[in-house]
Design brief:
With 256 residues, the protein is an alpha+beta fold.
């Protein structure tokens, strides 16, 4: 549950969407959240955004999607930066969790067209702005669907990577980078498929491998712990007992 003190109440102003002015120089904003879907686009320069899914460095031509209810802040940025904010009533996709960082030339062009329309205000421009906003949402859903369809293949790659590298120090960012995904999205996708977070799965895999070694080799407890990626034998022993109901030594002695 997000801190209500960081909630931003975005009032309705009669326009289909809210469009912030382009930032001409250095800027940042403090952490906050709202129900609206926010799409930020960097026309020039670069910025660093921090969201619940991670920290993202964005260059010119890249966009970021802030999901409904997601805490976010701009740590730093400069250049020409645009932002459109869609109220929950604008579409039925407030419950969709889009990937944060997007490199898509079409989205950048459509956001740029919205700014041009608002600046020039031709006849019927309000309807044209609404049309572009709908096209942007359609494009985001299309990319989201494609990412979902790739999910099983990516999870298979994640499992294979973890089975090959479970003895090593592994951070969520390492696995996410290997699969070209954000850490937050990978965690949600992995847990929905496997039933555990990636790091919980690594811990489970290490313990299972340790049990195999204790039962089939003459390795002592410390050697077994190190072989399976545990730096601290005492921590390993606590986890092992919690998982198997026996200490590593008890487990090994029973197998003799």
């Amino acid at each position: 549950m997000n801190d209500l003190r960081l909630y931003e109440n975005i009032p309705a102003d009669g326009f289909p969407i809210r469009v912030n002015s382009k930032e001409p120089a250095e800027y940042h904003y403090m952490a906050h959240w709202h129900e609206h879907i926010e799409i930020q686009c960097f026309f020039s320069g670069k910025g660093r955004l921090k969201t619940e899914s991670g920290v993202f460095d964005l260059d010119a031509g890249e966009s970021a999607v802030i999901n409904s209810g997601e805490l976010h802040e701009c740590v730093s940025g400069y250049g020409s930066w645009g932002c459109i904010i869609l109220p929950p009533s604008f579409s039925d996709c407030a419950s969709v969790r889009f990937v944060t960082k997007i490199s898509d030339e079409k989205i950048v062009k459509m956001i740029s067209s919205i700014y041009d329309l608002i600046e020039k205000k031709p006849d019927g421009y309000v309807h044209a702005v609404r049309g572009y906003a709908c096209l942007i949402i359609s494009r985001l859903i299309e990319k989201h669907k494609a990412a979902e369809e790739e999910g099983p293949e990516r999870i298979a790659k994640a499992l294979e990577f973890l089975k090959c590298h479970y003895r090593e120090r592994i951070a969520l960012s390492d696995l996410a980078g290997e699969l070209h995904m954000t850490g937050g999205y990978l965690s949600r996708l992995f847990k929905s498929s496997v039933g555990l977070t990636p790091m919980a799965y690594v811990k489970k895999l290490r313990l299972e491998k340790a049990a195999e070694l204790l039962a089939s080799t003459d390795m002592n407890i410390t050697e077994t712990a190190e072989k399976c990626g545990f730096d601290d034998p005492n921590y390993f022993a606590r986890l092992f007992k919690k998982s198997f109901g026996k200490t590593p030594r008890e487990f090994k002695n029973e197998g003799r």
